[in-house]
Amino acid sequence: MTASTRRYCTLFASFLHFDVSFMVWVILGPLALFIAKDLDLSIGQKAFLVSIPPLGGAFFRIILGYLSDQYGAKRVGVGSMALTLVPLATGWLGGHSYGEMLFVGFMLGIAGASFAVSLPLASRWFPPERQGLAMGIAGAGNSGTVLSTLFAPAIAAKVGWHATMGLATLPVLVAFLVFTFLASDSPTQPKPKTWPEYRTVLLTPDTWWFSFFYSITFGGFLALVSYLSIFFNTAYGVDKVKVGVLVALAALFGSVLRPIGGYVSDKIGGVIVVRTVYVAFALCAFAIAFAPPLAACSVLVFVATGLLGIGNGAIFQIVPQRFSAEIGIVTGIVGAAGGIGGFYLPNVIGQLRAASGTFASGFIAFGVLALVGAVLVTLRGRVWSGTFLSGAQTALRVGSTPAFVEG
């Protein structure tokens, strides 16, 4: 197999790994209404349950990011997919109490941690001028959320939510085999880092800036996909099966537009794309807070998730330029921040809803956070333009760096 063939086989395998992993990572969101009815959960418990998989993903992403740097993303990816079967089997054969389902949710974080495997694996095969598109294609695996939100409610309505989790093991097994045989570690993969080198990454301010920005875009996308079924059902009375279609469309917009965000960032720069996304998303969030009719609200939600998808692609067009040699561990840390965003945002919306009796306060708070992000990414972009961004660029335009070698 030629290097070029291995490159594109790995890109496809990374996408599939990410896609199926995301499908099972968010499965509790579309099943939440069924689980809540069986276990008699309050609205606060429902919000907390759907936020647990993102928290687990944040925890496991750091671990898998480190292991990917040490032992290779291919080997770690194979192991993580095998472990993903554990929470699915537990939910299928057990899951008879709220405590058990919290355990299942946390362990589903292993699937969410695929981010720290798939993206570094794909990234190392491509040169800097193609990072945005390559990372966008691999990252578009979050389209797995579409599969869960579209099909899980309909299947659960027919066979029950326990059996639905059992059926989810089948695509995991298929993806496991494809990834095992098609994925390859890049010949340009750097040597494993030492602990002092990791400490340097952790003490680098840009690590935490990227983490904050990604907690808004990816955390926001994940929060909405996880919580929208509860939102539409509670605020608009949409039934458990039809709500899956609305959430699936929202997830589709966020997934399909992620590569577009990377591609556009390759052309005009990630900073301007992220800033534009934050401002536009804030406007959508404020409009949703006014509780428009269902049709208008649905359109606003689709636009909002699409914007967040673009922002995800834009941020990971910049990250590999700043941290080329440390992309595995940095992807784990930044991805973990996205998972934390997916944990706290549904809880904030849920708690504000419980306290105020309306969803408006939660969406307003989310919009304000996005505006803060717009200001900060603009200021930080001016610093980046004078350091790792090439001299011909400004904070409004992101270009390449010679840190990557064509594989």
Could you walk me through the main structural features you see in this protein, from its secondary elements to its overall organization?
By secondary structure, this protein is mostly helical. The protein has a single domain, classed as Growth Hormone, Chain: A. Helices cover 80% and strands 0% of the residues. The chain has helices at residues 3-25, 28-39, 43-71, 73-93, 98-107, 109-112, 115-123, 131-139, 144-159, 161-167, 169-182, 195-202, 205-236, 242-268, 270-289, 294-322, 327-356, 360-384. α1 packs antiparallel against α7, α2 (28-39) crosses α3 and α3 (43-71) packs parallel to α7 (115-123). The longest helix is centred in the middle third of the chain and has 32 residues, at 205-236. It is globular, with a radius of gyration of 20 Å.
How are helices and strands ordered from N to C?
A: HHHHHHHHHHHHHHHHHH
Radius of gyration based on Cα positions = 20 Å
Tell me the number of structural domains: 1
Shape: globular
The proportion of residues forming helix, as a percent range, comes to over 70%
List unreliable stretches of 5+ residues.
390-407
Strand portion, in percent? under 5%
What oligomeric state is this?
single chain
Architecture, CATH level 2? Up-down Bundle
Distance between the termini: 13 Å
Q: Can you tell me the CATH topology?
A: Growth Hormone, Chain: A
Provide the CATH top-level class. Mainly Alpha
Structural class: mainly alpha
Biggest sheet statistics: none
Please tally the helical runs, counting DSSP H or I stretches of 4 or more residues: 18
Instruction: Return the average pLDDT rounded to an integer.
Output: 85
**What do we call the CATH homologous superfamily?**
MFS general substrate transporter like domains
Per DSSP E runs of 2 or more residues, the count of β-strands stands at 0
